[in-house]
Amino acid sequence: MTGEPREAGGLVEPAESRGAAEPGASAVADGSASVTPLEQALHAARALVLADLMASEVAQADVVSLVEESLSQRRWWVEQWPEGADFLAGLVAQDVQDALLERQGRWPLCPACGSGDPHALDVEPELGPDPHWVCHEAGIDVAPVGHLGHALGGNTSA
Questions:
Q1: For range 23-39, the mean pLDDT
Q2: Measuring CA to CA, how many Å separate 51 from each of 8, 32, 55, 114, 121?
Q3: Measuring CA to CA, how many Å separate 54 from each of 88, 118, 146?
Q4: 121 compared with 12, residue with greater pLDDT
Q5: CB 130 within 8 A of CB 136
Q6: Alpha-carbon Rg of the chain, whole angstroms?
Q7: Fewer Cβ in 10 A, N or C end of the chain?
Q8: How far apart are CA 8 and CA 3, in angstroms?
Q9: How far is CA 100 from the centre of its chain?
Q10: H or E stretch including 7?
Q11: pLDDT band at residue 115, thresholds of 50, 70 and 90?
Q12: Mean pLDDT score across all residues of the chain
């Protein structure tokens, strides 16, 4: 039966794609590929940053492309330094923040400071696990990356 399509989870899978797992993925008993720790970390970082972009209502297609561009660059980085996988969410958030500053302006704006000039939050730690959005003007931790929706008054969660 080699070369014939087969049904996989309700979809017809071409024969030539079977067994073409991503490098580093291991095969599971049913022949599917498992998700590597690298892929898990990349997916988690994507989900957290997208949640914050959605919460602040700036998740348009061109902005989501910035997330994907950052993930592509950070994939290489974490392949070189696997111990850095826990730092991906904060780094991707910073990458997107920097790219948005060049294109559209500051993001995310601080929801805690009601007066004065609008200002962006910063990611702390700059390189470390468990990144948070912080307001340096008020000296407060606003929200973990991925949970900005709670600080903005929404019910968005990652």
A1: 63
A2: 30, 29, 6, 23, 16
A3: 19, 19, 10
A4: 121
A5: no
A6: 19
A7: N
A8: 15
A9: 15
A10: strand 6-8
A11: confident
A12: 82
Q: What are phi and psi of 141, to 5 degrees?
A: -90, 120
Q: Which amino acid is at 44?
A: A
What's the longest Cα–Cα distance across the chain? Answer: 70
Q: What is the end-to-end Cα distance of the chain in Å, rounded?
A: 43
149: tokens are 């929706």
Please give the Cα distance from 64 to 52 (Å, whole number): 11
Cβ atoms of residues 123 and 145 within 8 Å = yes
The span from the CA of 54 to the CA of 46, in Å, is 12
d(C-alpha 45, C-alpha 50), whole Å: 8
What is the per-residue pLDDT across 119-156, written as a single tens digit (0 to 9) for each? Answer: 999 999 999 999 999 999 999 999 999 999 998 886 44
> Omega into 23 within 30° of 0, i.e. cis?
no
Residue with tokens 């500051």: 106
Q: Which residue has the tokens 């468990």?
A: 130
In this structure, are residues 54 and 95 in contact, taking their beta carbons and an 8 Å threshold? no
pTM, entire model: 0.76
